[in-house]
Write a structure and sequence with these properties.
Layout (H helix, E strand, L loop, with lengths): L10 E3 L2 H16 L9 E6 L3 H11 L4 E10 L2 E9 L3 H4 L5 E8 L3 H9 L4 E7 L9 E5 L5 E3 L17
Parallel strand pairs: 1-8, 2-3, 2-5, 5-6, 6-7
Antiparallel strand pairs: 3-4
Helix pairs in contact: 1-2
């Protein structure tokens, strides 16, 4: 059977409840590997890492939270990642004792850019695809490379064609 669907039509839909549960599950995994002096800071990769980072920072009682903004998508087209906002590097340093959080690692290109800035940080994502998985130390759920994840902040209620053809 020939599959004529576009890549984003093989969708994995994540609700607000699910991202909250999965982010808490990631926090519990990270709790098990907390450095002796605790996690010094959480750095969220914006925009997708904001909600998971907030939940993880709360669960792990980390009060220092910052962001790094990396643009690597234009709608659903991936491009070369560019840092458009860095965290306060005088606080973050080389990343020792810092959690870098994102919603998803896809190809790993975004995390490569961030890792160059914070080589000693612990990188964690809620979801991981096979190509990007080597770039993270911790994640909760792996999805196939050809799956498009629809996050709740990207969604609106509408009709969707069935997975296998028309009604």
């Amino acid at each position: 059977m020939v599959d004529n669907r576009l890549p984003h039509e093989k969708g994995f839909h994540v609700s607000w409840d699910q991202i909250h549960r999965d982010s808490r599950a990631l926090a519990w995994r990270l709790s098990d590997i907390t450095p002796p002096d605790g996690w010094r800071a959480v750095v969220a990769i914006t925009r997708g890492g904001l909600a998971p980072a907030m939940i993880i920072a709360r669960e792990l009682d980390v009060r220092t939270v910052d962001t790094i903004s990396v643009k690597s998508y234009n709608h659903q087209t991936q491009s070369e990642p560019v840092v458009i906002k860095s965290p306060d590097m005088s606080v973050i340093g080389d990343g020792e004792g810092v959690l870098v959080i994102d919603d998803l690692v896809d190809t790993g290109k975004t995390l490569e850019v961030v890792r160059r800035l914070m080589p000693k940080a612990h990188f964690a994502t809620v979801y991981a695809k096979p190509m990007g998985k080597p770039m993270v130390e911790s994640y909760v759920t792996e999805v196939s490379q050809d799956t498009w994840i629809f996050f709740p902040w990207d969604m609106a209620l509408q009709y969707v064609e069935p997975y296998r053809g028309k009604d």
